[in-house]
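Hi R.,

Here's the chain you asked about this morning:
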Amino acid sequence: RMKLGLTKRQTEVLSVIRDLIAECGHAPTYEQICAAGDIRSLSSVHRYVYILRERGHLDLKPLAKQSIVLL
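And the predicted structure, written out as tokens:
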């Protein structure tokens, strides 16, 4: 899948996800992304993850709590 461009905030959220994976050694939960990214709600995290997936920057493992996979 071809990677598409991101807004500044989407890039920031992707960086937060990368940093959390590097720090913890596994995919972060939406709660961790929310706290580390200074995001107000889990629904906003869900929206960012959906956009990042649609734009080819990450994927999700089905049926896993910590399901984010960087591409």
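The mean pLDDT is 90.

Let me know if you need anything else.
M.
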